[in-house]
């Protein structure tokens, strides 16, 4: 049979252009055969080839037992291949892991350093708690190996052991500490230990305080920048615990900052000073000022330094860390940070974006959002297919294809290179920007927003630049929506939030929702390609329904809702639409002041027929929510249709004829009532239990008849209320909308005008589309028609934000001290029929009176009593709060993450009581583990033998009997070892500890006692073992007692 | 600590994958592909730090922003040499600038071992590539940063072979790769 080496495989791969997949499949088939061979060379070559192919995603988990075989070969190069294969292919669920343990132990104890290195490198990849317990005893002696390379690797391996099995540190830490304290130790080993201590340090800083003097010496000695970086990082976690360190650290750190030529060290110094709280500690002193100036100055230098994007990036990283604790330092650098938002490099932009979100205030919000909007608008939306082209991994695995030109691959790696392509705006970035804009604007219930008209325009514009959503997959539960890429939900929720909370711009919000819902404007309002932003319809649909009385074109909206395409919308949106339809119908049909003329009757009949026509097919919609609503409103509409046809129309020119009550009262009553207000999370829980509430005794024994009577009465008395509730909003709004037709006409004019002259003054709002700007301008002109202080932007470049005076006049006109305004007496009371301001004043404001004269009234969440800790999000935006809740409840371990949380519970204090108590607990736990392991081992062994037998049965057909026998013997051998090992686990630890005691001369005194105990009676074993552990852990204590 | 070290070429073909946590093969491949997509679109003026690929971004999002979480991979550092990208994924306990230097040490060590190293050397000697990395990083923790010690450590494990002479085109004009000893240690 032809046997291929790895070299042949790779070359073959390169020679099979176009048919790599077949070639690989063929090769794997060969490997399957070769790996079963008895020839170790062949076996290991096959394994090597499989490992190579594994890199491209070809599964080799089936070969895990063969990996073990090659690992156990006496030849070093086989071993090396085996270990590499194990590291690359073993996973958490690899069953042979248990069997590997013995091999690992054996190789750790090997006399050859290169062999010891193999398990040291492999253990971090394959370790599990039970194995850790077992190999620990073999690893510990390696800390004093004569080769520095072995010592440093052992330290790191022990650290990884500790991550899965924290108890490792109990015996290992004193020894590692010893190595660290040893000044004659190889610098590489010291550096490795510092690296490990740095990793451990942030979990348990208090345990490493005693090391501070030694670490400090290492820092001052200098020489190794790598180590200095780690030391500074470590000190940054120690200083909060030991403030005296700060004084000591400051001089060397300042010295390094001034002297070092290594930028990385300089950066970490600044980082350490900031993160270690050193700045606060020395605040006010002269040296404190110097340090602060030095740090911020250097960071700023990094930001503005030409040509080094890396420094810019890390400086932003540092700013991000201090933005919460030292906002003043960061805001000083606002200019350079804001510039980074427009950096060509996406990485830097992202960092700047994160930073800026924490920096915005009401002064710079408009400008910042403007910059971001400009980015979104100017970069084309990537179409979905492009994305998939790049994303091979999702569709198919990576295929190691043959390169057509090898010259590339021969290029020397000495010179670092970068490609020259311009960066596209990735979808993820778009989504992030939109999310960040929403986050910035909605912060603290819109604390930073002064102009809500502007915000609504921004939201509408955001819909247009929304990236397409990935798939049409229906997302049913809330949680997924939060995580999905679809920003339409976020935008929609903001619009809804503004409409509910900010009454003064509700009309504008409804306007925006109205234009979003309109089918004939869809091309204009949504991105031209992809389905981006469509989920905003869900919220727009709700707004047009709930605030139907604000609609300027209810008939057109109705037509859009009933459009055949609506039935194709996602079920969530469709359900909302179904709810909005009757609401709008009620507002169209419900006016009982207009006589029931034949014309009106015909109109109503037609409208209801259309609604019925739309609802009928939906009554069998697959979504239950849609189906239920469709059926309900279908019945309602049929009732209405009956009522309409049953009510004779009056003479159009004659007397007033009452419209059917069902239309004017019954249906509107379904949808009008108390106004919806935002309610704080958890407010329901706070509703106090009324005193003397007794739910058990009947209120009145004669309840039934009373209720019946009350119903009758209520119908009569409530009539007025219903009438008032229903008729008031429209009349009051009529005033407000009266000038609308004129303004719409003007809008058109303005639009035409816009096209010719707009770009002179488009600077401030160039991120908004032309039509939005035109509308804004028309509205502004309308609004300020009577305002002598308003400066027409056509005359001069306007400022983005509303001038302070204008906003006073607009928002707080009731409370402005008119007399305080000089020169002109503004008679706001009778501001003409077409001034919105005047009409706004007529709108009855029953809710809480305005407090901040300059601010727009924003409704907070309703709640009772003081907001409690968790519900302190009381005034928080609706969008943000559910996410936070999610993140709290969902503790998901991240990809690639090495969990070190178990270390947090372990104390390294040598002589403290809790440690002792834990040891007792631990011994019991360990015993349990050991028993468990024995069982597991036995089980594994049994399974393996079974498998072995099965495979032998298969093989026996072709192979010679002798071979089988031989194999069997070997297998049994391993099995025997395993069993032995399992039994010996308990003893081993004990013996090992005994050994250590022997080695330590100081402990010699204890030795006889130990000797006596070992052959001791069964019953006493447990107690004695405990004792022995204490001895070992209480090294310090033992030492002193011995010396006494 | 360091969570993963990856090397792939300009076409996204992996040359070295080392994950310091056990990860499903399919997830590994997806991660490589996502990082490749990110890295291959960088202009030359861009910095050497990548935004988190979607796979990692989603997992880091789940941790609350208020508590600093040093276990989560939060930094993707890369360097581009000729035809190869070198990538390190790490947590915030590593210094970003130091990682860039670490990649440099890695490449220099390879260059020292192979004499004017190129992608082909690494393709055909991927065991040596792994061994070199093993001298630099063990279990996600940096154990050595001195060039000579790294090289010494690799050489102690056996002869480092140059790629076979007949592979690829000759006349590269780079000189200095002793073709005499360039025998492939194929078993």
From TrEMBL, chain A:
Region ranges (Disordered): 381-427, 829-877, 997-1044
Coiled-coil features, chain-numbered ranges: 921-957
SUPFAM superfamilies noted in UniProt: ARM repeat
Keyword list, A-Z: Coiled coil, Golgi apparatus, Membrane, Protein transport, Repeat, Transport
Alphabetical list of InterPro entries matching this protein: AP3_complex_dsu (IPR017105), ARM-like (IPR011989), ARM-type_fold (IPR016024), Clathrin/coatomer_adapt-like_N (IPR002553)
Subcellular location: Endomembrane system; Golgi apparatus
GO cellular component, one term: endosome membrane
Domain Clathrin/coatomer adaptor adaptin-like N-terminal: 20-639
Task of the protein: Part of the AP-3 complex, an adaptor-related complex which is not clathrin-associated. The complex is associated with the Golgi region as well as more peripheral structures. It facilitates the budding of vesicles from the Golgi membrane.
Family from the record: Belongs to the adaptor complexes large subunit family.
The protein, known as: AP-3 complex subunit delta
Organism: Westerdykella ornata
TrEMBL record, chain B:
Protein name according to UniProt: AP complex subunit sigma
Cellular-component GO terms for this entry: endomembrane system
Family stated for the protein in its record: Belongs to the adaptor complexes small subunit family.
Main location as per UniProt: membrane
Domain AP complex mu/sigma subunit intervals: 1-158
Compartments where located: Endomembrane system
A GO biological-process term: intracellular protein transport
Pfam families, sorted: Clat_adaptor_s
Keyword annotations from UniProtKB, A to Z: Membrane, Protein transport, Transport
Superkingdom assignment: Eukaryota
Signal peptide residue numbers: none
PANTHER family, sorted: ADAPTOR COMPLEXES SMALL SUBUNIT FAMILY (PTHR11753)
